[in-house]
Amino acid sequence: MNATSEKKGYALITGATGGLGKAFVFETAERGYDLILTGRSEEKLRVLKAETQAKYSALDIRVYAADLSSLDDRKSLYAGIERDGLKISLLVNVAGADIQKGLMEYTQEKIAFQTRVNFEAAVSTCRFAIENKAKKLHIVNISSVSGIYPMPYFAIYSATKGALTSFSTALREEMKGKGVFVTAILPGAMPTREDVKEQIQGQGLWGRLAAKSPQSVARASLNAVAKNKRKVVVGFWNKVMRVSTAWLPTSWRLRFIAKRWSKISKDAF
Ligand SMILES: NC(=O)c1ccc[n+]([C@@H]2O[C@H](COP(=O)([O-])OP(=O)(O)OC[C@H]3O[C@@H](n4cnc5c(N)ncnc54)[C@H](OP(=O)(O)O)[C@@H]3O)[C@@H](O)[C@H]2O)c1
Asked: Which ligand 1 atom minimizes the distance to the CA of 16?
């Protein structure tokens, strides 16, 4: 669909400046949504706005910089959107921090940062968007297949994503009959940043088979919105992996994951 042919209302996209966020920006623009974009960096947002506006000149694009781990920044973001009188038709919670290490390698600050960005901020934006919704609102929360099972050495990420999936599913039920629809998206690996690309390559054939491009994940997510799906694991091989490992004893799964992930350590980007 061409952006100029049918306007859909405003889509609020968090983490808009990242790999998957940017894919959502272009996919939603293509489908005719006006855009409210947020990320931490004013400069990245300015460049993204210019790039998107050059392609979709008919769309209204607003940008607001905010660190979603900060309650004050979230309040300023919400105040800005309210001041500008924007009502939200689609919320896509993309922002996330994939810090990966054992618990004892974390500082207290990093624990707060990751749990706030991955879970608390997403819950908070849901509350804000519901209060400021257009006639109808669809919420898309970007979780992860990493949230399906507990993951030693990726435990906080995995727990926050599991919590986000659980929250989305429950909220969907709470919102029944209220014009609010909620979809949790569980992608596997996506080649977004360079370190993620290297990690996928390092996983050999399996890594390459299971990885999906950010564009295809954004498209699958918006197709899931159109069908009002509750939860979607993206990609054939990720679905196969989920079903085929479900019968394994938990202790085996934990040992396998611990062996694999204990070799990797990365901080926030
Ligand atoms: N890539 C994968 O393999 C993969 C797999 C499954 C799920 N996911 C999930 O998909 C989402 C996007 O991943 P990605 O690979 O596109 O990551 P990315 O390229 O690193 O982008 C992350 C985005 O989140 C924003 N962000 C990070 N911390 C923030 C904070 N404190 N406040 C506000 N915004 C913040 C970043 O904005 P600024 O840097 O501009 O602040 C950026 O726009 C994440 O939720 C991730 O957990 C990713």
From this structure: 43
